[in-house]
Structure prediction request, 119 residues.
Amino acid sequence: QVQLVESGGGLVQPGGSLRLSCAASGFTFNAYAMAWYRQAPGKEREPVASISSLGVETKYSDSVKGRFTISRDNAKRTMHLEMNSLKPEDTAAYYCGRSSGVEIKPNYWGQGTQVTVSS
Prediction:
């Protein structure tokens, strides 16, 4: 069965960096686009970044463009989100998702990892 496991969240000061990882199993990883979404308390889950199956195409939300970088390693079946210049408004649970394209909402999700940006 499809399994996605996120890791790398934590508490970081404003301006700091974190690297999130998503380990995938149970499907042909290099056949699917992947994405990161986030959900803050009281808000809807929103897209952060997505990457095509072979990593050629990436897409970012305006709020993270220039600060976050999405990448994937198909040989290791992993996806990453490098987050720099973090702001308090980046605080949220971050979810890894599998989708059919960079513009398509995922239909499989991991359990999430918490990112808290605070001094």
